[in-house]
Structure formats: C-alpha cells, structure tokens
Amino acid sequence: MVSVVDILAAISDDKSLLLFKTIALSDIESNSSDTLLGILHFTRKQYYSRMYKLAKAGLVLKKNGKYLLTNMGRIVYDAQTTLEKVVGNYWKLKAVDALEMSDEFQVEEYDKIINALIDNEQLKDQLSKSHSSLSKDLQARSSSSYQSPRISEIYT
Amino acid sequence: MVSEKQLKSDFQYLTFLDESGYLPVACNAEDLLCKSIMNTLARLGKSYCIALLQNMRSLDGLSENELLTNYDLFEKSLYSILGKTGQPILRSIKREMLTNLVMTDPSITIKDILNSRLGVKGIMNEMKELETLEFISKIRADEHIALLYQNELSKNKILSKFFDPHTTGRVSKGMLLVKKPDNDFCDFRCTNILYEELLSQDNRTKHGITKILSDWIAKLHSSNRSEKEQFEEEEENTIQTTRIAEEDATWWLRNGFDHEIISIEKLLHKDTQENNISVLCAFDRSKISNIDNDKNAIIKTTIAVHEYVILDEPFRVYKGKKK
After folding, report:
1. Which residues on A lie below 8 Å from B99 (Cβ)?
2. Does the complex come out with an ipTM higher than 0.85?
3. For residue A129, what are the domain limits?
C-alpha cells in the first residue's frame, strides 16, 4: 500500500519533480529512457533512482519501453499544478490574509453571534427542537479541544 | 448603483427568457458562494447553523438553494436576523470568495484585493465574467448565440474573445458593423461588412438583403475551407470554423426593417447548422428599451431563434430548449 508520504517523497526534490512533469507533459513516443535522459541531462544514477521511486509510489508505469503516468499519477499531477498556482499567487494570497479577515471568528465576535442567535425568539424555538444536539454543541464549546463540524456532518 | 431603468430592462429580459424556456447554465461562481457560506456557518456549530438557515429561509419563503447561491438574498436575511453582529460572517465569506478568485483570475492585482470596495457581489461578477469568456472561447461550430448587452465594454470583451486569434487561429472571421471603425482595430483576418452595404439601392426587400448576406457568408466560409486544408497540420489545437458576429442586431429594428430581422436571423441560424459556422449576434438592449409591443414581439421571436442567450451586468449564459 502506497502512503501519502511515499508519493510526496517521490517528487520531493527538483530533479524528481522535473522528471515527473516531463513524463506528464511529453508526447508518449518521447518518453523512453534514452530520450528522457537526453532531454533532462541527468546522470544514469540520478535518472534510474528517481524513476524507481516514481514507479514504486505508483505514479508512473512502463509500457512497451515508454513511461507514462498512471491514473493516480495524473491526479497527483493535477494536484501539483494547483500547488504551482498557489506558489505563483503567493503575494496575492498574502494580501487576502492581510485584510484582517481571520479564518476563525474572534472569540468575542463568535460569542456575540451566538448570543444574538439565542436572543432571537424564532431561532430559540428551532434551537430547542434540536435541544440534544445543542447541548452537545455547548458542551463542546466549553471544551478547549472543540472543533467546528465539517460541512458533511451538517448535511448528514 | 443599479438604476431603475436597468432593473426594469433586466426584469423584462429575464421574464422573456423564462417564458421562452431558457434556463441559466450551471454557474461555478454560485457553487463557490454556496461552499463559502456553508464553510463559514459550519464554524458556528451544527445546531446554530441549521437553526439560522431554517430561520433565514422562513423569512421570505426561500429555498436553501436560492439563499445560498444569491448573495443579496443571503446578506439581507442575515442582517434581518443578526443585524451588524452578522458582519464577521460576511467578512469570512468574502475572504473565502476572494481566495477562490485569486486562484482563478490571473488578472486580479494586489491593489484590487486590498480595495475595500470590492465586495462579494463584485467578486461573483468577476467570476461570472471569466466563466462567460471561457464559454465563448469554447463555442462549437454549429452554435448560434445572442448577446443582449447594455454596456459597450461587455460587448467588446465578448467579441474580443469570440475572435481571439489564440483559440481561432487563421480561421475566417467576419463581422456586420454599424459603422466603419475609426482605427483599424481588426488586426485579425476579419472581413467586415456594414449593415448598410446589405441594402443595395434597387433591392431593399427581404429577399435582396438575405441574398447579399448569404453571398457574403458563402464567400467568407469558402475561403476558410481552402485555407483550412493549407494550415491543417499547423493548427491542430485551434478551432477550425468560420466565426461571424453581428455588432448590433437592433440596427434592423431601429432602421425600420422589422420583418427582415427575423428572416436574417433564421438565415444565420440555418448557416450555423448546415455549414458549421459559429454566429454571435449582439443586441444593444439600451437602444430598444422603449419600443412598442409589436417591436417587442419581434425582438422576442428573433432572440428565440438562438440556442444560447448571454446577458451582461452581470454576465450569465442561458440555454434554450433544443430546436
């Protein structure tokens, strides 16, 4: 069984990532060892040790002497392009962070919202209908290890 | 600020599209808004989130989908319940939406991000514009599209994308223009014709106009076919179909060709189907806001010929029933 650590380790240095991206982007006909070695100017040791890790992690496979991405490799490649986008937009994302719009509500903001919800008569009725889950929420709030529920939990 | 006149025009066209069976094409911006709202509300806790949403829905009898995909409705309902206390929720939604925009719109600048006047509605409009331009660049060969615009800039953006040389390559492009451009903006291979040039002195009848138009399209399309073979290998990744656009189809109505406009649109529609041509007809709706009922009926019939309709401000694509 391949782990996330194995996948990340297989593409964790510049040369491995370059090899992985070259296989993903090249025409399948040019993905033989000789051609890849010619394109990338790696030593044989650099090339084969990295290709072994990529194959062991289930990202590439060899077919008729040519290397190609597996289904999992294609998904990992897509995730890698998203990461590249994130890196490319680093300063813009930092600017969003700088807008004083914290991901989590400040404690006082959170309390104000909850108090306003509890003060609302109609909401109080609806909240009392789901009293048991509310009690659980209140208990959880008092615990320091409380984490907000996930979206999937709300809809289940 | 949206003017009353604009609201009336929007309502008029939305009602018409609804009556004619056009439905809005799925919009990624609305999905992202829904996710951002739910991510934010989830932080309040399960019971509070459910109770808040139920209460918001019961205020105006809205469905959850309406509430979570329309920011104006959501904001109004939230203010009704929480007043200013709800502002951190809206700020958090804006933050999520802004992050999504940064990841999809390469043109957004840090100055735009830091501009406090850019709200969730503005972010949604940017996303909708990107989606619409993407739709235009991927138009299939046999599609006939109407653009009902009220902002000249919207028309220019759509037409630029429609004729974008990066996606259309050397394919033949033609445009029916209201007047000759002051500068030669057509750096692409574009063979233009003026609306007036379709009206020969001795043949201003419906048949005369459609004949000249038909000949112009045939000439444009045949040159495309011969060149297509020549450049086929070179342009494997570009769209290989003739593209024709009308700058402002309301010209016909404004110049008294009420009955000709329907024949012309039907001719263009026939060409899209038979000759695999993409046609985009722009209609400047600000110029036909005060027309009588007869002309209104003509406009409706004319628009209904198109498979897709695009409205601007904000951009939205509507798909008609399959004809």
Report:
1. 93, 96
2. no
3. 107-155
